[in-house]
Amino acid sequence: MRRGLAIGGVVFWLSYNTWWNRNGLDVASGLPLQICDVNGVIAPLALFTLNRWLRATLYFWAFALTTQAFIQPALSAGPANILFWWFWGQHTIILGCAVFDVAVLGFRPEWQDLGRAYAASAVYLAIAVPFDLWFGGDYGYLGNLPPNKIPPFVAALGPWPARAIAEVALAAAGLAAVALPWQVSFKRKPV
Question: Which tops the pLDDT comparison, 190 or 183?
Fold first, then answer.
């Protein structure tokens, strides 16, 4: 089951990104550099390898960041368009892999895992922000796009570059928040 879910995740990710760039690669928007694009690779790799760094990154990014796609989806097309279904499929696979890792494989995040997720996030920022600046992209919603191209919640964080700083701070707080339930449960003594 673990391998099947991982293989399905890889196949979906490859087919989605191939279809997305079927008319040519636009560096500003076509690279798989959104956080959920990256997590779409991490999720199956975490299940394939059971590597602690990958599992930690999957857990924290899925529950703190990918869940945001379900709360405020950044969609420009409805159910009649294939992009709608690719969007929901990709985010569901990521979250499904994370839930499987916790519920079936027994992954339990520790404080060191939060540090691993912060380190992975720093690497992501070091890659995504230069792409945003050099190519006018908005990977991680950290770029300086016109107001009509920014999701409402992100736009509510104010003008760029303060908005990008606020996003990073909120993401860091979100990662810490999804660590807390496990730390509280580890500290509780059985009755």
Answer: 183
Is the bond preceding 161 in cis, omega lying within 30 degrees of 0?
Answer: yes
Give 48-102 as a DSSP string.
Answer: HH--HHHHHHHHHHIIIIIHHHHHS---SS-TTSHHHHHHHHHHHHHHHHHHHHH
Condensed to tens digits (0 to 9), the pLDDT of residues 98-128 reads 999 999 999 999 999 999 999 999 999 999 9
Note the pTM of the prediction, 2 decimals. Answer: 0.90
How far is C-alpha 1 from the geometric centre of its chain's CA atoms? 23
d(CA 170, CA 172): 5
- Please spell the DSSP secondary structure of 95-149, one letter per residue: HHHHHHHHHTS-----HHHHHHHHHHHHHHHHHHHHHHHHH---GGG-S---GGG
Closest CA to 145 of 153, 155, 35: 155
Handedness of CA 74, 30, 169, 118 (dihedral sign): positive
138, 132 contact by CB (below 8 A): yes
